Each structure stands twice: as structure tokens, then as C-alpha cells.
Amino acid sequence: MLPLRLTRRCLPLYWGCKLFPHDRSSGEERVLYIIYQEDRDDAVEIRAANKDEHFAYLDRHQDILLLGGALLGDDGVKRTGSCLIINVPSREQAEEFSRNEPFRKAGLFKSVKIARMRRGQWNPAAAPKTAEGN
């Protein structure tokens, strides 16, 4: 099983250790943004009701989604939020992606932070073999 719902289409980007700074089809430069979202206290029902739409949205945007996954409590079970790293040409596109994400549209998050980031260390070999971090 691939970590964090990566699909075959994403494998060359993830396992090949390459982050393309340019969209090869449009010539636009792309930059990384991290979207850090913390759940509301009553998130369980909202998450369950929107889970399928959330994963469908991520699948439709796999061309920009570098990495995504749930934030977990120290017990490894309780979900406390989510984190997405996307590769888009502008902050406006990062904000639009976030605004249209089904969990956010459903009001799941008490806070959403979007920050531009620079790829520093990149070591896919250290990635867990399963989505749970094993």
C-alpha cells in the first residue's frame, strides 16, 4: 500500500525525488505551499459525512498535491486535523484550493494556515511504508 493515498500518477514525483519548479504544460513557475488545518472539537461527524468527497477532491487535484495526510493525537488514533503540501503558481491558487476543499467547505476546521515553503531536505527513502507510519 502506498503512503498517504499516493497514486501511480504521483509515483515519479514522490519516489523519484523530483519537484518540478515549472508546470511543463503552461510554463508557469510553481512554488510549494503547506496547508495546516486544525479540527474543531466536534469534527468526527463532519469528517465522516464528507470523507468521500474529500478524497475525490484530492484525487482530482493529484497533479498539484505533493503530500497530504491526517494530523493525529499522540495515541495515533484521534484525528486532530490535516496537512497538505501543494505545488501551485501562486498564493491565490493555494487559497482557492483550500477554500474549495470539502472538509473546509463543511466547516471541519477551527483554523487554517497557509504558508509558502521551500523544499529543503527531501528524503523519500525515510518515508514510512504504510500510511500509519510503520
CATH 2nd-level architecture of one domain: 2-Layer Sandwich
Order of helices and strands: HEHEEHHE
CATH top level label of one domain: Alpha Beta
Number of strands: 4
What's the CATH topology label of one domain? Alpha-Beta Plaits
End-to-end gap: 11 Å
How would you describe the overall organization of this protein?
This protein has 134 residues and is α+β, with helices and mostly antiparallel strands. It has a domain at 27-119: Dimeric alpha+beta barrel (Alpha-Beta Plaits, 2-Layer Sandwich), CATH 3.30.70. 28% of the residues lie in helices and 27% in strands. It has helices at 11-15, 43-60, 91-100, 102-105, and strands at 31-39, 65-72, 79-88, 109-117. Strands 2-3-1-4 form a four-stranded antiparallel beta sheet, with helices on one face. A hairpin with a 6-residue loop joins strand 2 (65-72) and strand 3. The radius of gyration is 15 Å and the shape is globular. Mean pLDDT is 83; it is low at 1-24.
Short description, anyone?
This protein is of the alpha+beta class. The chain has helices at 11-15, 43-60, 91-100, 102-105, and strands at 31-39, 65-72, 79-88, 109-117.
List descriptors.
single chain; 134 residues; Alpha-Beta Plaits; disordered N terminus
What's the arrangement of secondary structure elements?
Layout: H1 11-15, E1 31-39, H2 43-60, E2 65-72, E3 79-88, H3 91-100, H4 102-105, E4 109-117
Antiparallel strand pairs: 1-3, 1-4, 2-3
